[in-house]
Specification:
Strand order of the largest sheet: 4-14-13-12-11-10-6-5
Shape: globular
CATH architecture of the largest domain: Alpha-Beta Barrel
Bound molecules: zinc ion
Oligomer: single chain
Number of helices: 16
Helix content: 40-55%
Number of domains: 2
CATH superfamily of the largest domain: Queuine tRNA-ribosyltransferase-like
Largest sheet: 8 strands, parallel
């Protein structure tokens, strides 16, 4: 690589452009926001990302039922890939030989890969954890594999991830304080090993993951451990794993003010529109969730009037679009009656259109949140959006 090529790749950077909400600052645009929404921009080797951002999940090198250009057309600027799935099939080394995940799946923008830890715990068979890592059997063919902090970081490097996630153990819920402490401290030892294994490249990042269950002191200890190691960004893990909504919000309120104000904050696996709004109000910048894509394959749509099940007979002769306020091809070109028919008939276009719509809804929500922060009306936007969402679907025809 020539010097000019290197110079053309920007450093990984996060800029807070505006904040909205109650906050205390120590001056300047990268000031520590103790609470409140943040409008920001991530600069990476593979493109910029406006935050708050929602990352569609592309588990097996595809955002299911969507072509990459369609994903981009919804406004998504980054997608997520899953280390666990890709290491098993088609294999990280093969993806690397084919130019990395971005070239392989024809997604030119940034990609974030998870570490594999969460899915080893939720999908793999016969897993055995020790201080060094996890040995497990593939849920696909029973073959034996091992993941360690070093191997997880290596796989994510082979995949060409723009943002690499530290390998950790997602503490299950419920867990006693002793269990949560032991699990979190193991993850912190692994975080240090991930930092050492990560190969710095311009525009690429490694995120640490805060654990500690629902115990404020453990969350504080975890943040202290991670910030002393030093990461490009910080994720909040181990939430949205079954704990009550209020408990998740309490943990966010406790944790986000502890994190460095000038680094992106990513709430993993969240979530429903109302969860995202609540988390943005509490200073979170990045989200991912399978909900819009998975729901799209089960006839469930997210709309400005809450969730709608297109399988329901009430839509059978409804000529109206799914969501009057949406400009996606599904809503622009088709009626609820047609979507209902596609789903009842098991036609593949049904899940395709609903997935597109759901991803568009999520990106429109993020765009709305960003605009509201920029204009200092986040609280009103959140209240209006939630009121519409909770009002329920339009009256049947
Ligand atoms: Zn739509």
């Amino acid at each position: 690589m020539t010097t000019d090529d290197t110079a053309a790749i920007p450093d990984f950077a996060f800029t807070v452009l505006a904040t909205d909400g109650s906050l205390a600052t120590d001056g300047g645009p990268s000031a520590r926001a103790t609470s409140g929404g943040r409008l920001g921009r991530l600069t990476t080797a593979h493109g910029e990302i406006d935050t708050p951002a929602f990352m569609p999940v592309g588990t097996a090198a595809t955002v299911k039922a969507m072509r990459p250009e369609s994903v981009a057309a919804t406004g998504a600027q980054i997608v997520l890939g899953n280390t666990y799935h890709l290491m098993l099939r088609p294999g990280a080394e093969r993806v690397a030989r084919l130019g990395g995940l971005r070239a392989f799946m024809a997604w030119p923008g940034p990609v974030l890969t998870d570490s594999g830890g969460f899915q080893v715990m939720s999908l793999a068979q016969l897993r055995r954890m020790d201080e060094d890592g996890v040995t497990f059997q593939s849920h696909i063919d029973g073959s034996r594999h091992r993941l360690t902090p070093e191997r997880s970081v290596e796989i994510q490097h082979l995949l060409g991830a723009t943002i690499t996630m530290a390998f950790d153990e997602c503490t299950p819920y419920p867990a006693t304080e002793e269990q949560a402490a032991a699990s979190m401290r193991l993850s912190m030892r692994w975080a240090e090993r991930c930092r050492a294994a990560f190969v710095e490249r311009p525009g690429h990042a490694l995120f640490g993951i805060v654990q500690g269950g629902v115990y404020p002191d453990l969350r504080r200890e975890s943040v202290a451990a991670l910030t002393s190691i030093g990461f490009h960004g910080y994720a909040i893990g181990g939430l949205a794993v079954g704990e009550p909504h209020d408990e998740m919000l309490a943990m966010l309120e406790h944790t986000t003010p502890l994190l460095p104000g000038d680094r992106p904050r990513y709430l993993m696996g969240v979530g429903r529109p109302q969860d995202i709004i609540a988390a943005v109000l509490r200073g979170v910048d990045m989200f991912d969730c399978v909900m819009p894509t998975r729901s799209g394959r089960t006839a469930q749509a997210f709309t400005r009037r809450g969730t709608v099940n297109l399988r329901n007979a009430r839509h059978a002769e409804d000529p109206r679009p799914l969501d009057e306020g949406c400009s996606c091809p599904c809503c622009r070109g088709h009626s609820r009656a047609y979507l209902h028919h596609l789903i009842r008939a098991g036609e593949i276009l049904g899940p395709m259109l609903l997935t597109w719509h759901n991803l568009q809804y999520y990106q429109d929500l993020m765009r709305g949140l960003r605009g509201a922060i920029a204009e200092g009306r986040l609280a009103a936007f959140a209240a209006d959006t939630l009121a519409g969402y909770e009002a329920g679907d339009v009256e049947p025809v």
